[in-house]
Every structure is written in structure tokens, then in C-alpha cells.
């Protein structure tokens, strides 16, 4: 066992002399060279202290692990969660360095100076709400730097679940639209009366649900077809219903209608097939292509539309991603962003 290296606890950093460079930095890539010595972050110092690699002095007094951990957690918000994640990744054999947003993780066989980091890591407590913008900023940073973003969610028992988050490009392979013809707005759906138009619209674009020989359309499908000029809509009394009237009615029934319509429109314009995702607890299930309706393939995505100011609760996010994984789909969140942006989140096994 190497002799413990003496370190000084100053402000929010741990400073060591030049003797720390060969053993800690050059062999283990802990800390950063500073002047002639080495500077450690609080989480690196806690890890090394727990492994008896260093001893930490503060005001001429040596701190044990408990004293140091309590001091560090009072100085750095979220310190205890970051320590759990840092320790876990180090013990898995990764080189880990503090950085934006929380850590940089190097691939096995790589290290600082030999090659680039593979992941940026964002550490999250299961109890803390997570605004969409707090994910998208590191997602975009990681994308710009050609890195992956790892979300490390720490639960109340200090177990960690890892996810990868990234912007997703959505594209399908469906052909153009067929004309739907005359339809009637009922309570919360639309009925297309012409049997041939019903057949063509369902078979060519997987729109609606056949009920007998006629097609029942959802409100979001109907709004899309109406704005594309593929549907003529009336109420039960035969009075014309235009798009603003349909939208106003739909918003009274479904408070998420505007968000859903924006995502639905964008997905359809990207040649994807979009159907309700109710059975999966999401807004939509999405197919790249459907060849007829006799043998419908598995959908590739579950898509949930969220506002730009959406705040994720980690347990809800975990359930959504786990369900998508269990049915062999990717969980994607659609949000308004100069059009529609897509955030994919999936389980990750480091």
C-alpha cells in the first residue's frame, strides 16, 4: 500500500504537492496539475480519502472521511449524489474527470491525453424535478462535441440507473395522402362515410379504425386531414366545420390537443405513421412504414408531446423508458422548438 499523500483543504478545492503527480495524476488521472502540484475536486478527494490514498488537513487538523464528507456536502449542492456516481464509474474501471455538466467519462482502454471522453454525465436525484431545458442544454453540448450524454439517476437507496439522452432525427417511408371525402364530427371522433375512401385512407396511411366498412378518425387525425384539404367535415346537422372550429372543440375535450397536433403534424410530414399510444401510456406509437393493414409491424417509437417548459419527475421518466424498452420501442419526447424537436431517452448499461 503506497504511503498516504498529504493534502490541504482550501476553499472548495484540495491541493497537493508535486509528489502527488506521478502516483495520482500520471497513473490514475485524478485531478488537474496546478502550478507544481495537483488540485482535486471534492468528489475526487472523497474517493481517494476513502481508499486511504491521501490524508486531508484543514487548519492543521486531519479530517477523517466522515468529517470531510459532511463538510463537502455542505459546500457543494448534490455532492452526495455525485460521489455515488463517481465511485460507481471508477469501480467499473472507467477514468472519470469532473467537467460539464458533472463528469467526463473515458472509454475503457482510454484516458485523458490518450483519446477523447466518450460520455458527458449529468447526475440527478430521483427526488429532484428535472426541467426539459436542464436536459437539452447538456444534450446539445454533448452533440456539438460529438459525445454522448449519460443521465445517472440516483435513487433513495443510492442505486444508480443510467440512461442515454440525445436529440433524435425522425424519418419514415410512407407515401402521400389519399382523399378522405365527407365526414361527420360526433362527440369526440369523426366518422368517414364513403366506404371506398375509408378503405383507401386506412390502407394507404393507416389512418383511423374501420368500424364495419366506415372509418372512425381521432380528432388529431381529422384536424391533420382537414388542414391538408383531404377531408370535408360537418356537424350532425350538416353544417360545415372548419379547422378553427374543430380545434376549439378538440381543446375542450383534450387539454394536450395543441401539443399533440403539432407533434402529429410534424411526424406525418416526415412520412411516419402515427397512431394512438394510449395502451402504452403515451400520446403516440409511431411506425416508419406500414405495408397494408393485414400484417401491421411493431411500431419503432413511443412519442409523447411535452411543452417547452415541461418538468420531468425522474420516477415518471423511469417508468416511461422502462415500458418502451420492455415492448422493444424507443421512448421519444416531442417538444416545440422552432418547429418540433425530439429527445430520445433509453436505458444504458455502462
Automatic annotation (TrEMBL):
Q: Which residues form the tRNA intron endonuclease catalytic domain?
A: 79-162, 257-338
What InterPro entries does the record point to? tRNA_endonuc-like_dom_sf (IPR011856), tRNA_intron_Endo_cat-like_sf (IPR036167), tRNA_intron_Endonuc_cat-like (IPR006677), tRNA_intron_Endonuc_N (IPR006678), tRNA_intron_Endonuc_N_sf (IPR036740), tRNA_splic (IPR006676), tRNA_splic_arch_long (IPR023516)
EC numbers for this chain: 4.6.1.16
| Alphabetized SUPFAM superfamilies for the sequence | tRNA-intron endonuclease catalytic domain-like, tRNA-intron endonuclease N-terminal domain-like
Spell out the subunit comment.
Homodimer.
Q: What does this protein do?
A: Endonuclease that removes tRNA introns. Cleaves pre-tRNA at the 5' and 3' splice sites to release the intron. The products are an intron and two tRNA half-molecules bearing 2',3' cyclic phosphate and 5'-OH termini. Recognizes a pseudosymmetric substrate in which 2 bulged loops of 3 bases are separated by a stem of 4 bp. Endonuclease that removes tRNA introns. Cleaves pre-tRNA at the 5'- and 3'-splice sites to release the intron. The products are an intron and two tRNA half-molecules bearing 2',3' cyclic phosphate and 5'-OH termini. Recognizes a pseudosymmetric substrate in which 2 bulged loops of 3 bases are separated by a stem of 4 bp.
| Annotated PANTHER family | TRNA-SPLICING ENDONUCLEASE SUBUNIT SEN2
Question: Which protein is depicted?
Answer: tRNA-splicing endonuclease
* Gene of this entry: endA
Amino acid at each position: 500500500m503506497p504511503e498516504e499523500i498529504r493534502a490541504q483543504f482550501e476553499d472548495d478545492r484540495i491541493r497537493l504537492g508535486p509528489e502527488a503527480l506521478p502516483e495520482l495524476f500520471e497513473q490514475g488521472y485524478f485531478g488537474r496539475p496546478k502550478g507544481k502540484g495537483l488540485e482535486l475536486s471534492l468528489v475526487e478527494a472523497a474517493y481517494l480519502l476513502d481508499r486511504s490514498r491521501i490524508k486531508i488537513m484543514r487548519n492543521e487538523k486531519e479530517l477523517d472521511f466522515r468529517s470531510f464528507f459532511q463538510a463537502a456536502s455542505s459546500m457543494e449542492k448534490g455532492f452526495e449524489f455525485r460521489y455515488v456516481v463517481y465511485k460507481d464509474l471508477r469501480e467499473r474501471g472507467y477514468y472519470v474527470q469532473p467537467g460539464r455538466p458533472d463528469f467526463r467519462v473515458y472509454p475503457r482502454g482510454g484516458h485523458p491525453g490518450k483519446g477523447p471522453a466518450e460520455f458527458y454525465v449529468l447526475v440527478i436525484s430521483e427526488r429532484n424535478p428535472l426541467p426539459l431545458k436542464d436536459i437539452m442544454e447538456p444534450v446539445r453540448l454533448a452533440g456539438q462535441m460529438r459525445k454522448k450524454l449519460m443521465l445517472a439517476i440516483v435513487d433513495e437507496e443510492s442505486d444508480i440507473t443510467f440512461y442515454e439522452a440525445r436529440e433524435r432525427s425522425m424519418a419514415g417511408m410512407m407515401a402521400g395522402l389519399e382523399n378522405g371525402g365527407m365526414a361527420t364530427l360526433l362527440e369526440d371522433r369523426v366518422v368517414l362515410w364513403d366506404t371506398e375512401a375509408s378503405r383507401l385512407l386506412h390502407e394507404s396511411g393507416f389512418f383511423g379504425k374501420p368500424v364495419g366498412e366506415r372509418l372512425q378518425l381521432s380528432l388529431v387525425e381529422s384536424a391533420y386531414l382537414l388542414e391538408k384539404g383531404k377531408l370535408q367535415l360537418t356537424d350532425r346537422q350538416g353544417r360545415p366545420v372548419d379547422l378553427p372550429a374543430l380545434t376549439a372543440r378538440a381543446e375542450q375535450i383534450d387539454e394536450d390537443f395543441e401539443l399533440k397536433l403539432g407533434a402529429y403534424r410534424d411526424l406525418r410530414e416526415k412520412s411516419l405513421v402515427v397512431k394512438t399510444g394510449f395502451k402504452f401510456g403515451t400520446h403516440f406509437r409511431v411506425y416508419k412504414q406500414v405495408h397494408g393493414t393485414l400484417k401491421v409491424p411493431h411500431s419503432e417509437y413511443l412519442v409523447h408531446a411535452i411543452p417547452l417548459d415541461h418538468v420531468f419527475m425522474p420516477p415518471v421518466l423511469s417508468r416511461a423508458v422502462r415500458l418502451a424498452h420492455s415492448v422493444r420501442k424507443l421512448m421519444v419526447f416531442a417538444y416545440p422548438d422552432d418547429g418540433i424537436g425530439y429527445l430520445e431517452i433509453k436505458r444504458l448499461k455502462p
